Amino acid sequence: MNLFQSINDALSIALAEDENTLLFGEDVAFGGVFRCSMKLAEMYGGHRVFNTPLSEQGIMGFAIGCAAEGMRPIAEIQFADYVFPAFDQMVNEAAKYRYRDGACGRHVGGLTVRMPCGAVGHGALYHSQSPESLFTHVPGFRVIMPRSPLQAKGLLLAAIRSNDPCIFMEPKVLYRAAVEQVPVAPYELPLSKAEVVKQGRDVTVVSYGQPLYICLNAIKQAEQDLGVSIELVDLRTIYPWDKETVFRSVQKTGRCMVVHESMVNAGVGAEVAAAVQEDPSTFVRLEAPVVRVAGWSTPTPLLFERFNVPDVANIKALTSSDPNLVKELGPAFQKYNEEQFTTVKLPGGSEPVLVSSHNSLGDGRYYDVESSTSFEFDHATQKASGAQSYSLESKHSDLVKSTLKSLGAYVKEHFPNAAYGVYPIEEDSKLAIIIVANKYSPNNFWNGRWRSLYMFDPSGSSLEGSLRVDVHYYEDGNVRLVTNKAVTASIPSATGSGIAKEIATVEKKYQEELNKGFNSLSEGAFKGLRRQLPVTRQKIEWDKVASYRLGQDIGGGSSRR
């Protein structure tokens, strides 16, 4: 069956199984402009399937009256674009009837409103709108939009049989375009229950109705060209929608895109995006902001209608790192990674190596002295590849290697998770010495980084550098603690062991200063720093906050804990 045939079949079943079911609207007895009610008047009689005057307000008022008397009316609005004259009846009567007269046992739960919606390429201002989000602002309705014939039949029967007033939106571009095997027997699909159409691990795409086909095409291309794995979720019922399924998917993938044909402003995508970011368990797993691909916030001009509908290119571009976008942002990514002294493990390697401007070979390649390896680094994905053998050529190569040896002993004993490097710079006249340590303590809701950068001048035996500690606490809010310290020292021996010894002395002193200052910060003052941005239900033990020992927890070895 195609979509209009499956809807016709569902309507026929509903009329056959309950004599209180009525079907009416403009041209409905003639089969409807899209043939969804074809032959039903002949089969069930003109007293149950009939035409109405061209008055959407009258159609809805009559339908509400029938439902209030226990009937199951199925009212058709010929085009969703013309539902607006009936808004008062729908919003102030149908949706509120149960809240107004429910105590008397009266309701209009048997009401189903069908309306073709969406663009077909030539509908322009008055035959291309998709106003579903307007109804999602009205408590009391269920708003449903199927993607296929199989879905349409099961969801429409569920809507007709439900005891809630339902708005059933039918993407008219799919009436003849969507074809699949549909059971002849009656069946229902659950309302307010989303379906995972395709499993994935990197991105969650949430959609409904006609855009799902565009999403599937975009996903196929994105997975083939960009190497991402994408999960596709069909909301099916867009109000009340299935938050649990969407949250579970986003928690798995860490990224979310919402695609719909209706305008982007205050649309379903805005609601899904807000809900995803308001849920604490989902928010903390987001690796990127939620994005929306939707129609323009403008009336649809005939000439540009096809540009107003989400297309494959727009969806594909946002599912991963689009090559053109990455090319434009490449310098920014590179600057960030080099300034942060990003660490990465080489393929087959066990120890992290550094990425910085000091060990750059150009064209995205970097080298590591200790492993005698050069490698290519993708600044967008932060992954290393193309490892090759590399031999350091420097007049200070012996000093570099001895410094690495002594520095390695200090770093491995002093830092729990660190990377370090020594590199000739400034035309082989100086050495850059870098230490980076990362400490993640999610159980106590904080992360921290220690970064040291020193410049050693062999000709003058002088050491200059800076130490930086950056800590983020995120229990019941966000506090970021950042501190810097400049250091200068003279190293008469100018040996690797002498350099490492001076670095150890400087850093130990700095950590002691940090601990002293942090322990003197009162609990009340620290609590007062927090911005109220709840992200977790768990609590840190504030009476023990001093025992976390900021400097030593980030930079101290196990012997100091």
UniProtKB/TrEMBL annotation:
SUPFAM superfamilies referenced in this protein's UniProt entry, alphabetically: Subunits of heterodimeric actin filament capping protein Capz (SSF90096), Thiamin diphosphate-binding fold (THDP-binding) (SSF52518), TK C-terminal domain-like (SSF52922)
Signal sequence annotation: none
Key words, A-Z: Actin capping, Actin-binding, Oxidoreductase
Top-level taxonomy: Eukaryota, Fungi, Dikarya, Ascomycota, Pezizomycotina
Name this protein carries in UniProt: F-actin-capping protein subunit alpha
Top-level division of the source organism's lineage: Eukaryota
Organism expressing this protein natively: Cytospora chrysosperma (Cytospora canker fungus)
Domain Transketolase-like pyrimidine-binding: 1-177
PANTHER family: 2-OXOISOVALERATE DEHYDROGENASE SUBUNIT BETA, MITOCHONDRIAL, 2-OXOISOVALERATE DEHYDROGENASE SUBUNIT BETA-RELATED
